[in-house]
Amino acid sequence: MRVTLVVLLALFLALQYRLWFGKNSLPDYWRLQQEVSNQKNTNENLERRNQLIYADIEDLREGEDALEERARNELGMVKKDEVFFRLVPDRNP
Q1: What's the CA gap between 66 and 58, in Å, rounded?
Q2: Residue 51 lies in a domain
Q3: Model confidence over 8-51: pLDDT tens digits?
Q4: Measured distance CA(39)–CA(45) in Å, rounded
């Protein structure tokens, strides 16, 4: 009986060691859960960004207003017979 108890105790301790410190232990599992959660958040952010980009692409394909706005803001273009004034702040106030 005593030998069986010692063997069972040794087996229990070996399994506990693997559970807490071995490969695929609980701390590894918790770390991987955190990594999966972080990756899901990153994927959601990228999905939202992609949706915005798709909306911009659709606006550029559909209407001229978005195209004109981009040309004005990003390329500094102006319409024919239109005057553009740039106000530069004074460097020495």
Answers
A1: 10
A2: yes
A3: 988 888 888 777 887 888 888 999 999 999 999 999 999 999 99
A4: 10
